[in-house]
Structure formats: structure tokens, C-alpha cells
Request: fold
Amino acid sequence: MNGVPQAEPCNIVIFGASGDLTRRKLLPALARMQGWNLITPDSRIIGIMRDPSWQLNTWQDYVHESLREFHPDTVNDPARWESVSAMLELTIGDLSEPSMYQRLREALKTTNGKTNALFYLAIPPQWYEAAVSNLHKAGLLDESDGFRRIVIEKPFGNDLDSARKLNQAFREYVKESQIYRIDHYLGKEGVQNLMVFRFANTVFEPLWNRNYIDHVQISVSENIGVEYRAGYYEKSGALMDMIQSHLIQVMTLVAMEVPVSLDGNAVRDEKVKVLRSVRPIPPD
Ligand SMILES: NC(=O)c1ccc[n+]([C@@H]2O[C@H](COP(=O)([O-])OP(=O)(O)OC[C@H]3O[C@@H](n4cnc5c(N)ncnc54)[C@H](OP(=O)(O)O)[C@@H]3O)[C@@H](O)[C@H]2O)c1
Reply:
């Protein structure tokens, strides 16, 4: 990809490697990045599995199957698949088991004297805190020999109190700059295009305000249904799953003022101003 620098060699550790998020989103994203040459070949993709029957070749087959379905370009090109396959490693164990973190430490690869690691928590939210605490206890979040990062998906708590509690717990173990809270919905092309559409377009930019726009409706069209996620939806519901995260983010992109730059913090500041100006909806 033009202009995007290649990342330093890194151990990309996936907690929840057998889950839906990993299969449908994370593995295809990593394969795409490999295709764009954004990941060095000496990086590793380490899957954490709790089922002890998994072997390295089972994990490789699983990744192959997932990519065949969600990013076929990689598996249709033997050389490309070979490069992705060579990065794969496996660590077996349960998130609650301290010995798993010791095995993980041994699995981390050092390149040019640095042991960079990114821990992607593709696990049920109730496990976030325990996983980070166990990583800390095992010394895996210490940055003396390379960077260490934590990536978590929404939901970040299920209300203000639980989100604050989770933030507080994380702060005990890592610096804010080590945490990346991701809403992968914002990676969708249509959502990404909103910023360009609004701010780089001399026709729309001067008209995008309340003098010319009567109201805005945001529609979400999904091409898959609840499917086998009934258990999850039963607890979460569409309001919590879609609106309080993805759609409020889209609303901020539609309504915010021009940020001073496209830097993450500058965009965040403008989004916060939109959220502060929204009148709370009474629960009833
Ligand atoms: N799926 C999505 O599109 C999506 C979208 C946005 C956010 N998220 C968030 O991403 C996270 C993962 O979601 P998901 O849909 O991938 O869930 P999932 O399909 O239920 O997968 C959960 C994964 O966590 C593993 N796991 C659970 N308990 C474990 C333990 N004690 N030790 C080791 N591994 C354990 C599971 O392993 P087993 O296979 O052994 O059970 C599985 O690999 C959740 O927080 C979810 O809210 C997901």
C-alpha cells in the first residue's frame, strides 16, 4: 500500500483463535496486510487454542479454510499462502491457566534484538480483564525488550460503570498508549469514505450543515442474519450490539466539524464534541 510503512517484526498473538471474529475478520485482514507487504515475513501469527487436540497443521488447515472462504486471493496464490502459512504458530491452553502464558512467552520470537508482541483479545468480553492481568503477571506486558500492545474489540463493558471499571483494571497493567480499542465497523469502506466524501469534496463540504440538511437517517443493511449467534443476541440485543457502538460512531462521522488533521486524536476530539451535544434519550 502506497505510503503506509511496513510494521516492525512482531508476534501477533490471537487469543480466541478458533472463534468467529478471528475466522471472518482477523485472519482475512492479516492476509490482506501480508499481501500489501505491511507485515514482515519474520513476524508470527500465534493462535491460542484451548482444545489440546490442535496441532500446528490443524491450525494451518483452519486458516487455509477461513481464507478460502473470506479472502480467497491468498490461498489461490501458492507463494502467498506459503508466506502466510510459514508465519503461523500455535500455543495450547486456557486463558485462566498461568502455565499457558509461560508457554506463550517461550513461543515469542526475537528479531534484531526486539521481542515485539501484539495481543489480540478475540475472546468473550468477560475474559478481557483476566487475560490482561495474567499477561501482566507473566511479565508479557513489559516493554523493556520491545513494544507490547493489547487490542480489544467492542463491547468495552456494557454500560458506563462497567466500561470505567474495565479501563481502571487495564490501567493497572498497561499504559494507555499500549491499548487499542477497536470498532472494526469503522474499517468498512463505506464508513471510511465518509470522511473523504465530506471533507475532500468542495461541492459537499460547504453545504454539509443544518442550513441545507433537514435531517439525517442512518440505515444499516446487513447481508447476514443472527444465524448461530442467537445466544449472544439474546443477551446483547441489536440496540447494544449495533447502536451504542457502530452507529453512534457513524453518527459522529456524519455530524462532526472538520478536524484540525486526520490524526487519530484530532478526529477523536471532534467526535467527542458531537457526543457532548447529543441530548440523552430517557430510558423509557
Ligand atoms: N464476531 C464478530 O464479528 C465480532 C464483532 C465485534 C466484536 N466482537 C467481539 O470479539 C470477541 C470475540 O467474538 P467471537 O464472535 O469471535 O466469539 P466466539 O466465536 O465465541 O469465539 C470466542 C473464542 O474465545 C475462546 N475462548 C473462550 N474462553 C476461553 C478460555 N477460557 N481459554 C481460551 N480460549 C477461550 C474460544 O475458544 P473455544 O473455541 O475453545 O471455545 C473462541 O476461540 C467478543 O468480545 C465479541 O464481542 C466480535
Notes: The longest helix spans residues 230-255. The mean pLDDT is 92.
